[in-house]
Every structure is written in C-alpha cells, then in structure tokens.
Amino acid sequence: MTAPDLRVLSLIPPMTQLNTPYPSTAYLTGFLRGRGVHAVQDDLALALALRLLSPAGLADLKRQIDAVPQGERTVRVHAFAEAYPRYAGTIAPTIRFLQGQDPTLAHRIVGRAFLPEGPRFATLEAYDDDGAGPLAWAFGALGVQDHARHLATLYLNDLADVVREAVDSRFEFVRYAESLAQSQPTFDPLAAALAAPPTLLDAYLQQLTLDSLARHRPTVVLISVPFPGAVYAAFRMAQTIKAHDAAITTVLGGGYVNTELRELTEPRVFDYFDFLTLDAGERPLLALLEHLQGRRSTQRLVRSFHRVDGAVKYTNFVEPDIAFDDVGTPTWDGLPLQQYLSLLDMLNPMHRLWSDGRWNKLTVAHGCYWKKCSFCDVSLDYIARYDAATAETLCDRIEAIVAETGQTGFHFVDEAAPPKSLKALAAELQRRQLGISWWGNIRFEKSFTPDLCQQLADSGCIAISGGLEVASDRLLTLMKKGVSVDQVARVTKGFSEAGILVHAYLMYGFPTQTVQDTVDALEYVRQLFAEGCIQSGFWHRFSTTVHSPVGQTPQDYGVQLLPLPPVSFAKNDIGFIDPTGTDHDALGRGLKKALYNYMHGIALEQDVRRWFDIRVPKPKVARDRIARALQQT
Ligand code: B12
Question: Domain named Radical SAM core: which ranges (predicted)?
Fold first, then answer.
C-alpha cells in the first residue's frame, strides 16, 4: 500500500515503564513502514518523567508547594521544601547516572552525602519482618553501581511521593490514575477527571503532545494503552490533539482496549477518539488507513468501534489477520534509547530485570500454544490465536534490531514461549553466533529437559519465569495448568543447573483453596528454594476476569460470581463468592513474608507455620518431597 498523504504517529502515553519502551508503537511503526506508510513514534511516558525529574520540573513543583500554607503541607512535602536546593542541584546528575551516562557518580552516591535522603531511605535501616535483618545488608552482595542505583531509585521514589501529596495524587512511575480506567463500568469518573482543570502533570503532557505534533505533523495519531494505568493520559493526549486540530484522526488500541473495552457502548469516548480497534492492530489498521484514504467504506472496517449518529457502532468485516511471519520487524527508530532510566527498585531478582536495563522486546509467537489455564483470558485473541514464526525469521528480526539499537538484550514478551520454538531459536542463534542475552516467560513443561535448558543457556538465556501458581497438584489440575509440582521441581532444577535464574509466579486465593492447601503450597515453595530449584518468586492474589474460564463457567470451579453493574465502558474483574470461606488476606501476609526471606536464603529449614500470624495446620507434605522428586527422572 502506498499512502503518501497519510502521516501516522504512534504514541505511548504515561505511564508504562521507564527502563525501556513498551513495544506496541515499535511493532506498529515497523509494520506500517514495511507497508510503505509514513510512520513515526514517540514515548510520552519517558518524556513526562524526564520533564518532571529535571531542575525546571522541580522548580515548578516547589512553586506549587510554596502556594500551600505551611500548616497544610504533609511531612514529606515539608521535608522536600526544606531540602529543595539539594534536590535542585542533584536531579540532573542523578538522572544522567540512571541513564547510564555518568557511571562514576556511583561513588559519590554510595557515600550517602550526595543525595538528600527522604523517608524512603528509612527502608534501608528498617528491619524486615521476622528475620531478614536490615535491607542494607543485601548491599554487601551488590556492586557499587547497583548500590548507587538503588539509592538513586529511593531518591526518585521520595520525589514521586512529594508529587503525589502536593500535585497529583494519582501519579506513579509505572501507572497513572489507574483506578479511573480499571474495570470501570461507566465513563463518568474518567469524564469528570478529564473535565477538571489540568494538574502540573497534565499541563506537561499537553505541552509534550503539542511538541510531538509540531515535530511530526501527523494526519493520524495512534495511541496505545497496554494497561489501565495509561488510559487517563491517553484521553488527555487525545483531548489536546482534538483541541489543536480536530482534523487529525485519533485512534485508540492496545492491551487495555483488547481486554476491557470489548463491550463499549459509551459515545462520549468518541469525543476524544475517532476509532478504537480490538486485538492485533495490523489488519484493523490497514483497513482503517484505506478508509481514511477514501478507498474503503466504514462498513468494511475490521474490529473497529466508531460513533454513528451519536451511538457506538462496532464493525468487523472479517479479513484474515496478518500472519505473525509477515508482521515485519519492530523498529525503535525515533525513540531516545539512551535516555531510559535503569531503576533498581526491589531486590527481587526477576522484578529487577523488569525495571532495570534497556531490553528490546520481541514475541517468539503470537498467542499462547497452551491456552487452557482457567485463570487466564484464554478466550481473547492475544492468547487464543496461536501463530508462530520460523527460527530464521525470528533471528532475522533479532539481527535487524541489534543492528538498529546497538543493544543485545531481549525480553521475549510471550505469555508462554513454546519449547519447540525456543529450541529452534536457540539452535539458530548459536548457528549465527549472535551473542545476545534473553529472558521471558515459559510453562514448566517436561520438554524442557536438562539438555535443552543447557542449550538455551548457551544461546543467551539468562532468566525464565513460569507459573507454579498454587503449588498443589489438586489445584493445578483444577486450573488446567498441565503441570505437576514434581515436574516443576525437575524442570526448574534443570534451568537452575544451567545457570538460568528461575522466577516462579505463585498464586493464592484460587477457588476452593483451603488453609491446608496454602500451608502445603508454602511448604513446597520452601523446599524448591532449599533445593536450589528457584531463586525468585512473587505471590499474586487470584482474581477472576470475565474472559477467563473461571469467569465464564464459575460453577465448574465451585464459586458464584457477584453480579456486575450495567457496563457501558470497561469490563474485566469480577468478584466471586467461594463457599470455602478461607481468609486469604491473612494467609497472604504470611506467604509474602516467607518468600521475601527465602529469596535471601533465610529460614529455609524452618517450619513454614512460623510465617503466619493466624493459627494454621501442619503441612501434609513430606519434608523431603522435592528432594525425592528430583531423584526421579
Ligand atoms: C509482557 C507483559 C508484561 C510484562 C512487561 C510489561 C511491559 N511494560 O512491557 C510484565 C510482566 C512486567 C507486565 C506487567 C504488567 N502487566 Co502485562 N502483559 C504482558 C503481555 C503478556 C505482553 C505485552 C506485550 O509486550 N505484547 C506485545 C505488544 C506488541 O502487543 P500489544 O501491546 O498488545 O500491541 C498490539 C495490539 O494490542 C495492537 N495495538 C497496541 N496499541 C495499539 C494502538 C492502536 C491505535 C491500534 C490501532 C492498535 C494497537 O497492535 C499491537 C500489534 O499487534 C500482555 C498480554 C499480551 N499477550 O499481550 C500482558 C498485559 C498487557 N498486561 C496486563 C497487565 C494488567 C499488567 C500489569 C498492570 C499487571 C499488574 N497489576 O501489575 C503490569 C503493568 C506493568 C507496567 N506498568 O509496565 C494486561 C492488561 C489488561 C488490562 N486489564 O488492561 C495484559 C493484557 C494481560 C492480561 N490479560 O492480564 N506485563
């Protein structure tokens, strides 16, 4: 397709993450360029953070605080105002340090006299619950750079607290005003927020949007909302674009739309956006661009919402999606790759990979090859439509991305990368001698043999995460996870022995889960750490979504859904009643405490009951259960 008259700008709204760009605009821009469309991109999440975290940004913050009477300031805000000259003097060098542009500053930062230290630094001295000791001890194991990055991250977190308390209570570095969009049945809260006078952050975003328009002079702006925490800003950006030039076509898409806005009937959304599209963006966009060129009627749009005579209309003229082999190579061209911030927030080794380092993001396949887990949105396209590419195609993409970005780290963003594809990919990476590092999410399949784990490590795999969910064979079967605890033990041991960091996604609160199940799950997890199978983990509280099997056939899981109010906007989470009546909140506290300590190698031999602050039964799992599982092959 040639489209000389169309100029497409793709934007990432605040906030997503600060260490690397969220990949949707890179995918769409790469795809559109491959089809001859003039396409460019900007990351306004990073731009907003850098605008705020600058000497001029802190001066604006201080001015706003000065307008508040002393007596009305919170303790944090007061502390910031007192120490303002030190913040103003340190912000620019600290940002440069976090961008990796001035590493020698680390020595001054770890000296603890350079950065002003607000309340967030108290965590360094605080004793963590039950035994881990002051967090500071962990720095014994960290180098100077990491230690300094952690301190600089605390400094930024202090500033984010001040912004929240003085300027905009909805602000966080990885989500912004999330509650206005997440599972919000009506548009009313968002509409009210959008009608309110702009906060300092809104004003910045407005200016950044106008700057981007001036730079790129687009005729079409694609705004991508992967998560609820990017939605408010997306609407603010669209508001600015429409006020600036109503003739610019605005389009909204991304993971949030694909998940939560499928039943949209709210016409006010179209005061901001001309079109919304669902699922993989490539095919709907081609159709839409043809429409904008007058070559296709609105009746032939693909998976698109628009407004007709004041009502929302959904059109899905069925055309096949673009095969994953043909979507082309994402491009990061136009994004300021040297300006992302490598933050070191938590000492959880896997979370560290999420927020630290500029990873190129790439999918090994579209969708999930398993698509059965009953807690997952298996009915949606991004899970249900499995479509793989050859190892040659993937390696071509990898080579092109390394050549373009100069960076060799890859995060494979699949829900669960397929073992067969990973094996072929590893062989091709080795054959071409591409010295990349990579990590991503997998399922703990039997097919990950120790030999395959070693081959993956040799091809550059440094870490994997996978779901152990509730470590209980009964519940793993009920949730159709397709793995057993013993199998997870053997597979994770294989990865660990190959030198690959293993992170387990853990879940609690699944339908019918009893206190005994939870205690037993923790006992398994304890043993997996003690036996060196896993090094990292995180407990998520189970929640039901409307597109998951639990949300669709709750009776199969022994639970009853709570009715939802009428929905005209977002629909996702849904409450449920579990007749088991287990107090998961109380148990969750114990699980998190235990895991935190296990990740530091602490108390691995002790009875798991010690972590709970409520009375719990003895584990029914034998203390050598995992050791025995590891002896079997
Ligand atoms: C990898 C991943 C992560 C990683 C990395 C996140 C990151 N910042 O890069 C980790 C594990 C850290 C993560 C965290 C979270 N995630 Co996540 N994550 C994913 C996953 C599996 C892939 C995302 C990805 O990179 N896809 C590749 C890109 C290219 O695909 P895409 O963004 O969907 O873009 C395509 C289309 O959507 C469309 N499109 C996109 N934008 C636009 C715009 C326009 C205008 C158009 C026309 C089309 C279009 O075209 C693109 C190409 O086809 C998705 C599920 C999935 N399979 O997509 C969930 C998903 C996006 N995550 C989700 C959530 C909720 C989160 C968290 C908020 C969870 C939490 N509570 O903490 C956090 C937020 C983290 C953050 N602030 O950055 C949800 C969002 C659903 C929702 N309710 O909005 C998803 C959909 C999974 C789910 N169903 O739960 N996540």
Answer: 354-589
